User: Fold this.
Amino acid sequence: MYFDSLHALLTMDGHGVYVWSAYLVTFAVVVTVLASPVRRHKRLLRQLAAELKRQQGAPTGRTIGGG
Amino acid sequence: MWPIFHKFGSPPWLYSISGAILRWLLPATVIALIVGVSWGLLFTSPDFRQGNSYRIIYIHVPAAVVALAGYYVMALAGAVSLIWRMKMADVAMKAAAPIGAAFTFIALFTGAVWGKPTWGTWWVWDARITSMLILLFLYLGVVALYEAFDNKEAASKACAVLSLVGMVNIPIIYKSVDWWYSLHQPATIKFTEKSTIDPSMFYPLLLCIAAFYALFTCCLLLNMRAELIQRESRTQWVKKLASESGKN
Assistant:
């Protein structure tokens, strides 16, 4: 490892604030870009499942799709 | 040729194959990102002129490279959907636009943060930076244009044309650092001659670029799968999927 201490790693001789903010924002954007389609996917399937259950009208509603 | 074409046109096939790919590509991407970024951040020496601020290169360059590559993907998908009316190409084009915008934003933001300690300014209206900003607007334009139409077929056509017209910007971005005298440094990785980057910095950078390519692919597939579910919600295979997921 190049840095001797945690302090040196965080400050990076005065450049720490730039480097770490760049990495932090990138991390936040990457997480958002990965998570939003996953959440949309789950939401769509959940809505569709609820809709199918309503259409069946049966109180059990477990046999949809036969699976 | 045609059977492959037919397969790619089949939403359930695309859905299942993308799921199989993501099962190993997603963990591999996360590992490559962690290794590449920690290598660059922790185990390389600082640049002799720029000091530690240069460590931003390990996200700035990969994001910029993939932002440009993503535009090819979007424009190519747009062309295929325009010429052969292939629905899945349209799904790919729509899925690529917001991801491309995100990567372009990362490239611009990290560039600005890198510029402050290196050039003494966050922003200059320099050819490279301005053409990247136009790239961001092109991506956002495709996203917005898609939402602006009620008729999805018209939206698809308009977006395909916009992304194809926007292709003129791509060589401008590539060549901007050579054509205009610019504050932005010229490319450090060269294919035709020796790169002007030390191998100890080059290998982690190469790994980060590969990881960002993989990340783009993961995001693209995830977006396409969500889009497929929405478009195909009236079909039997999606209904079956929904009822199966509703049980868990």
User: Anything to note?
Assistant: Chain A is about 70% helix and 0% strand. The interface with chain B takes residues 1-3, 9, 12-16, 18-19, 21-23, 25-26, 29-30, 32-34, 37-38, 40-42, 44-46, 48-50, 52-53, 62, 64-65, 67 of chain A (CB under 8 Å). The longest helix of chain A spans residues 16-56.
